[in-house]
Amino acid sequence: MQVPEKMHAMVLNEPGQSLQYREMPVPEPAPEQVLIKVHACGVCRTDLHVVDGELTHPKLPLIPGHEIVGSVVKKGAHAEAFKIGERIGIPWLGYTCGECRFCRENRENLCDRPLFTGYTIDGGYAEYTVADRRYCFPLPENYSDMNAAPLLCAGLIGYRSYRMAGDHVKRVGIYGFGGAAHIIAQVAVYQGKKVFAFTRPGDVQAQKFARRLGAVWAGDSTEMPPELLDAAIIFAPVGSLLPAALRATIKGGIVVCGGIHMSDIPAFPYQVLWEERVVCSVANLTRKDGEEFFAIAPKVPVVTEVEPFPLAQANEALNCLREGRLQGAAVLTME
Question: Are 127 and 334 contacting, i.e. CB atoms less than 8 angstroms apart?
């Protein structure tokens, strides 16, 4: 397959600045890597945290993006498992050392020396990218490139957050009804859970969206649900939601913080944590999470709601996400 020498990419030169549309050399895959022709790349809230400087140690200059769908066009010497032309997905966790305590204990998501796609290694806001062969997933055939893209982070991290809430959960609250929430709500409904959706105050459209996907109740994040929750998952990066979610859970309930960044959590009385309520965070994903999620997604079937943007309009897509003007997920297209 003919690979050009040059490609277009959206590049972050400094946090807090707009991305720049640039022509760059097409990267060469290392022995453990594959070169991907990118077809679509989802726009994730984590990208926004990187661009806005809330995640403070990016590689610079940087090509963001970690919800990548593309096809293999070139292989490193040790990437024999993939075929030229094969469609694969590339997620946030892009490399682990395989040697630290966490890797040896099958907790690779907590690796001491990880690399992250679109943060510490270049990502998918580009026409081509390279990826470690170990962290590439085959994708279900019944998803288009554009609709598969949000599954690579919103789906995977959302699924890990949902699994951490526990199998016993019957009533689950979801705070922040965006990319991850709209996917995981469908999985929860499929598995017979009652979903309670919490949105920005007054966001009637998001509340209607949640009900359309099967939520039994949808309201403002400042409200209490009509029933106490067995578990709550917080996808919105708003620290004040944590004590609110604790107040909405039953004794022994769990609150899972599903984002990589959150504003400061305000002080709250011990009484709302007492009675064996639990708070935990989610860090990255494991390959097992990906395998499980991509097995269940077509059975639901999970339907992703996407809004396409050309690659050169990545800044507009990020602004829409920042201002809450999206229903579902923004996806950059390379065609």
Answer: yes
Nearest to 258 by CA among 276, 284, 228: 284
> Among the residues of 72-225, which ranges form H helices?
101-104, 145-148, 154-164, 179-190, 204-212
- Alpha carbons 279 and 253: distance in angstroms, whole number: 9
pLDDT over 80 (residue 6) = yes
Domain boundaries, the chain: 6-152+305-333, 156-281
Terminal Cα-to-Cα distance of the chain (whole angstroms): 18
Residue 124, CA distances (Å) to 20, 73, 137, 330 in order: 14, 15, 15, 14
The CATH architecture assigned to 156-281 reads: 3-Layer(aba) Sandwich (3.40)
Q: What residues contact 277, with CB distance under 8 A and at least 6 apart? A: 246, 249, 251, 252, 253, 254, 255
Instruction: Give per-residue pLDDT as tens, 73-106.
Output: 999 999 888 899 999 999 999 999 999 999 999 9
Claim: this prediction has a pTM higher than 0.85: yes
CATH architecture observed for domain 6-152+305-333: Alpha-Beta Complex (3.90)
The half-sphere exposure of 57 on its side-chain side, counting CA atoms within 13 A, is 4
Q: Which amino acid is located at 73 in the chain?
A: V
